[in-house]
């Protein structure tokens, strides 16, 4: 039996997550959804606001933030879903506004019994456009939600000016260059594709990694002046960033694997996600690398052409990442004749 596609919806309190969820259900009315609703409190009001889904397929987690209570509640709910999997086609998880999506993502990719039955399709972050400036300044969780997203929905754009929206889009595109970016009002998605994104497949990881090429760093925007600079500075306040590297030549597979294991052992709390396209010596194909909080996988990609210059690109996403130290360490993992590196 095929795996169950999972869409995770994050976003701070009041951003419009449930409204977006209802828009997805309405748009894909031929799809049977199972819904996991998480509310930070004893009574889950959001579950009552879900419209169009079979109420028997809506599961409530009301014991607190899903990222804290998930080891028991979420896994129990996923087990129940597997028992009734013939009743639905897809799963949507709406997290509470203060949730760190990283913990939820890891639950679906790190535990074999879950990963064997569920596949994350995409992580969607809903942004409250009128108050994004305050959220970035005051709430680190908002920055974590943005940087981990595969799709960013800038909602409530009817409440902001076109110039303001342009600045938000520009900063968001630098804060998370690999994310798909869309602007909406009232969570109306129209022709925007919300399903079938396949963000965690090797092909999409490769494509998203390439988006980091030639991107002006967020720090560059902070020097531009005006509201764009103000917003960029606030996005940098919690030191949550993406750092991209490119290396000419080939890595040594054994040394690279050993270094990564050691790196994640000591740094998994600071490094949220790593993804890249790698070239290894004596290996004919590209290798797609993907890690979430230390749990990583290597997937075979397309073959290198004989006359093609080999190059590896790798992106680290996290908090307080030591950019120069990581670049220097990775350079040492190249085979001797390939010691060349450029940091993007």
UniProtKB/TrEMBL annotation:
Reactions catalysed, as given in the entry: GTP + H2O = GDP + phosphate + H(+)
Record keywords: Chaperone, Hydrolase, Nucleotide-binding
GO CC term (a single one): cytoplasm
All copies of domain CobW C-terminal, residue ranges: 240-334
InterPro entries: CobW-likC_sf, CobW-like_C, CobW/HypB/UreG_nucleotide-bd, P-loop_NTPase, Zinc-reg_GTPase_activator
SUPFAM superfamilies xrefs: Hypothetical protein YjiA, C-terminal domain, P-loop containing nucleoside triphosphate hydrolases
Molecular function as annotated in GO: hydrolase activity; nucleotide binding
Pfam family, one: CobW_C
Keyword Ribosomal protein: no
Role noted for this protein: Zinc chaperone that directly transfers zinc cofactor to target proteins, thereby activating them. Zinc is transferred from the CXCC motif in the GTPase domain to the zinc binding site in target proteins in a process requiring GTP hydrolysis.
PANTHER family: COBW DOMAIN-CONTAINING PROTEIN (PTHR13748:SF62), COBW-RELATED (PTHR13748)
Family as reported in the entry's similarity comment: Belongs to the SIMIBI class G3E GTPase family. ZNG1 subfamily.
Full protein name: G3E family GTPase
Lineage: Bacteria, Pseudomonadati, Bacteroidota, Bacteroidia, Bacteroidales
